[in-house]
Amino acid sequence: AALALDNGLARTPPMGWLHWERFLCATDCAAEPRRCVSEQLFVEMADRMAAEGWRDAGYEFICIDDCWMAPTRDRQGRLQADPKRFPGGIRKLADYVHSKGLKLGIYSDVGSKTCAGFPGSYNHYDLDAQTFASWGVDLLKFDGCNSESLELLAEGYRRMSVALNKTGRSIVYSCEWPFYLRPVQQPNYTEIKQYCNHWRNFYDVYDSWSSIKSILDWTALHQDTIVKIAGPGGWNDPDMALVIGNFGLSWDQSVTQMAMWAIMAAPLFMSNDLRHISPEAKWLLQNKEVIAINQDPLGKQGYQLSKDKNFQLWERPLSDRAYAVAVLNQQEIGGPQKFTFSLTFLGNGLACNPACSIRQVLPASRDCGVYSWISSLSVEVNPTGTVLLKV
Questions:
Q1: In the predicted model, what is the mean pLDDT of the chain?
Q2: Per residue in 173-212, pLDDT tens?
Q3: How far apart are CA 268 and CA 265, in angstroms?
Q4: CA end-to-end span of the chain, whole Å?
């Protein structure tokens, strides 16, 4: 299949920062000036991304989500930013973001209104694509609320993909298409990959362990359908927001989200406050070894190999005959537990044949040594934690 109509983008999973989850739809800048979805918020995040190592670690997009718009289109029928919260307009903001060596993402909806009730793109696909391109936008997150039928939903996603390509500007296309189809019918992922660069499959991620756990459970349950379609140019999005550095996850749960999003070849879009982030969360999110796994050029998505009581064993094929391996302990009571597995399990028996070196990447990096094909490996994993290995 063609990849997003051959726009040549997203050869590895996109990385960046997204306002949704942490900042939601806060629009009262007088009451909440530091949390308001505004020009100031994105300028301050862009400054942090450029100055504090985020851009250099690979996080290149800074993305506006819902609630950026004025309540109505302008006299020419074009979308417009809320004039009080974005006094310079989106073009000025894009120029600023670009001056920091970053790219700007924006949000719209396939239906008549966005999920928060702002103007949607229905019947305006070409105009909106041209508007975004004229502003210098580099990514579009296209939601699926308020579409009257599945036929109109599918037509809208296709039409916006064609419209974005017609602008001549390179714009990554992030779709919510399969998420809105799934309650009614099985998505056609071959078609979706033809039009989209990545696509969301499951509910919004929340700042909670139960949300992370439910995403991992859903992914494992549906892996036979979704894993094979992922690859350079098109990626499964388990909901891209990394909520590391917020309030709801313990340290071990944060390690689990980072490790498993790398295993799943997921887009890595943080949703946190980069102005107030702990050194530990920063270390985890900027970890070069984990990001290298996520960004591996082979572009194969990982999958669950086995499940044994509370333990899950996942692997992801990497380039140069390497594998990423994750051992996840879903137990939520007690202390650290040991899990032992045979290395002959990995890579259909090829990963360690006749021998392999193993390095632990998370929760701390260390060399584990060289193992033979018939060896077993034991790891100790904290409750709700993950040990990430490179074989």
A1: 97
A2: 999 999 999 989 999 999 999 999 999 999 999 999 999 9
A3: 9
A4: 31
Instruction: List the structure tokens of 82.
Output: 């809320």
CA 7 and chain centroid, separation: 19
pLDDT of 2 over the 60 cut: no
pTM: 0.97
Active site residue: 143, 207, 237, 296, which one? 143
Strands of the sheet containing 386-390, edge to edge, are 303-308, 311-317, 323-329, 386-390, 355-362, 366-372
Catalytic pick from 6, 74, 95, 204?
Answer: 204
- Distances in Å between the alpha carbon of 198 and those of 48, 95, 99, 174, 249? 26, 25, 26, 5, 26
Catalytic-residue membership of 143: yes
Task: Characterize 138-169 residue by residue with b for buried, 16 or more Cβ atoms within 10 angstroms of its Cβ, and e for exposed.
Answer: bbbbbbbbbbeeeeebbebbbbbbebbbebeb
| 79 token code pair | 């979308």
**Taking 70 as the threshold, does the pLDDT of residue 259 lie above it?**
yes
* CA atoms of 225 and 215, how far apart (whole Å): 15
Identify which of 177, 112, 96, 169 has the alpha carbon closest to the alpha carbon of residue 139. 169
pLDDT digits over 49-107, tens only? 999 999 999 999 999 999 999 999 999 999 999 999 999 999 999 999 999 999 999 99
Tens of pLDDT, residue by residue over 360-374, are 999 999 999 999 999
Average pLDDT over residues 306-332: 97
Q: How many CB atoms lie within 10 A of CB 213?
A: 16
What CATH topology corresponds to 15-295?
TIM Barrel (3.20.20)
74 is catalytic: no
Six-digit token pair at 306? 């086995």
C-beta separation of 266 from 240 below 8 A = yes
Distances (CA, A) of 179 to 182, 236, 305: 6, 11, 25
Alpha-carbon Rg of the chain, whole angstroms? 21
* Residue-range domain boundaries for the chain: 15-295, 303-390
Is the confidence at residue 283, as pLDDT, over 80? yes
- Is 303-390 a domain of CATH 3.40.50.300? no
Structural contact between residues 267 and 15, judged by C-beta atoms closer than 8 angstroms = yes
Q: Which residues on neighbouring strands pair with residue 337, listed in sequence order?
A: 381
